[in-house]
Amino acid sequence: MGLARGLARQLAAPSGIAGALCGLAMDFANRKPLERAVDLLRPASGEMVLDAGCGTGAASEAMLRRARCRIVAVDQSETMIRRTRSRLARTGYGSAVEVHQARLEDLPCQPGGIDAVLALNILYFCDGDGRMVSMLRRILRPGGRLVAYVTDRHSMEKWAFTAAGLHRLYDARQLRDVLVDGGFDPASIAIQSRSIAPGVQGLFALAHAD
């Protein structure tokens, strides 16, 4: 249980060498979900996009390869912020991205100032009061969109680290509920369940702001 809890803590708040290695492992595990989530988001040239919980910056890089958008990349982990800045400088995308170390509940964005939000593997850490999702909804312009990805709870429950209780788990109904509680109209939410690896189902949510 000690090892599993340590992994759960690093996934929630990566730090140090262990956190950097965890980020690399997550990049490998998330290749298929990332590709699918960016396909759903469809970033467009000139748009302002929030990479919520940006991790190593892999999603920001993937979006910039699709379109000449502008990105605000936010993560609470100092280790991940360093990895993001290093990746973007190495790939030449640094000038297109504002990088901030902050909690998603305290986003450095103006209300209605964001065209699209990519929330990859961050809703596990949404508090019961729904403040994280409410903030993501508040910063979206009318007609803006959010794409969120989580692994289905029926797959995650097989993984020992989830027993530590640091991850909030979702099925499709629970994912819809947390978005509705955060201010999204139920009629604006579409959820897809997709296989992302043998025996692993992922949930992709697309929601539009009023």
Q: What this model shows, in words?
A:
By secondary structure, the chain is of the alpha/beta class. The protein has a single domain, classed as Rossmann fold. Helix content is 39%, strand content 25%. It contains eight helices and seven strands, in the order H-H-H-E-H-E-H-E-E-H-E-H-H-E-E. The chain has helices at residues 2-12, 16-29, 31-41, 58-66, 78-91, 131-139, 153-156, 172-181; strands at 48-52, 70-75, 97-101, 114-120, 140-151, 189-197, 200-208. Strands 3-2-1-4-5-7-6 form a seven-stranded mixed sheet, sandwiched between helices. Strand 6 (189-197) and strand 7 (200-208) form a beta hairpin.
Please tally the β strands and state the result: 7
The SS-based structural class is alpha/beta
Output mean pLDDT. 93
CATH architecture: 3-Layer(aba) Sandwich
Overall geometry: globular
What radius of gyration results from the CA coordinates? 16 Å
Would you give the CATH topology? Answer: Rossmann fold
Protein traits:
25% strand, seven-stranded mixed β-sheet, alpha/beta, 8 helices, Rossmann fold, 210 residues, single chain, 39% helix, globular
SSE blueprint and pairings:
Elements: H1 2-12, H2 16-29, H3 31-41, E1 48-52, H4 58-66, E2 70-75, H5 78-91, E3 97-101, E4 114-120, H6 131-139, E5 140-151, H7 153-156, H8 172-181, E6 189-197, E7 200-208
Parallel strand pairs: 1-2, 1-4, 2-3, 4-5
Antiparallel strand pairs: 5-7, 6-7
